[in-house]
């Protein structure tokens, strides 16, 4: 089971990837909505060209066919996306897969396809998208982690820099975020602060 970087920004363009990677981001998701397939493909291609030589993990949300065509190594799918996806083709290319979960039934379903991480959300209220689920809260993170064991747990939804430590302490391995970075007046400074404050101390060194 490979580890994930604890800070996981989600952005909607290759230009954001180009800006964030020099700050030290090691894991980033391209989440593009309402664009033509050609536009998505161009963005995926450009983001991969930035990430590949720098060994940054790029996760493509939703657009699994384009991701496979372009040679991406990681895909994120929600439960509805999963229903229409060719999991065999994804697995045949050894592409990693992250899956969204919001309740017990979705977690059972996700675990049934052996994902590379499970995402739980929304932890807090989010204004990014309307969702039928109430905020999960921190206790739910611990419950999910006990159920999934060594499989990496990503938390998402309304998470700010100030809230991230609570998610990690509750059992998350990784914190995904949109607005607190891309909506911040100084997003690159904010991303740098996220990297510093989510960094785990090297083995053998005590926490301060
Ligand atoms: C890390 C992570 N977790 C959850 C989601 C949400 O995926 P999904 O439920 O498919 O919703 P959309 O993002 O496609 O609107 C995610 N993208 N990333
Ligand atoms: C896509 C998605 N899935 C669950 S919550 C969420 C939105 C996360 O955005 P933000 O970090 O701005 O709350
Ligand atoms: Mg989706």
From TrEMBL:
<keyword id="KW-0808">Transferase</keyword>
<keyword id="KW-0784">Thiamine biosynthesis</keyword>
<protein>
    <recommendedName>
        <fullName>Thiamine-phosphate synthase</fullName>
        <ecNumber>2.5.1.3</ecNumber>
    </recommendedName>
</protein>
<comment type="similarity">
    <text>Belongs to the thiamine-phosphate synthase family.</text>
</comment>
<keyword id="KW-0479">Metal-binding</keyword>
<keyword id="KW-0460">Magnesium</keyword>
<dbReference type="InterPro" id="IPR036206">
    <property type="entry name" value="ThiamineP_synth_sf"/>
</dbReference>
<dbReference type="InterPro" id="IPR013785">
    <property type="entry name" value="Aldolase_TIM"/>
</dbReference>
<feature type="domain" description="Thiamine phosphate synthase/TenI">
    <location>
        <begin position="13"/>
        <end position="181"/>
    </location>
</feature>
<dbReference type="InterPro" id="IPR022998">
    <property type="entry name" value="ThiamineP_synth_TenI"/>
</dbReference>
<comment type="pathway">
    <text>Cofactor biosynthesis; thiamine diphosphate biosynthesis; thiamine phosphate from 4-amino-2-methyl-5-diphosphomethylpyrimidine and 4-methyl-5-(2-phosphoethyl)-thiazole: step 1/1.</text>
</comment>
<dbReference type="Pfam" id="PF02581">
    <property type="entry name" value="TMP-TENI"/>
</dbReference>
<dbReference type="InterPro" id="IPR034291">
    <property type="entry name" value="TMP_synthase"/>
</dbReference>
<dbReference type="GO" id="GO:0004789">
    <property type="term" value="F:thiamine-phosphate diphosphorylase activity"/>
</dbReference>
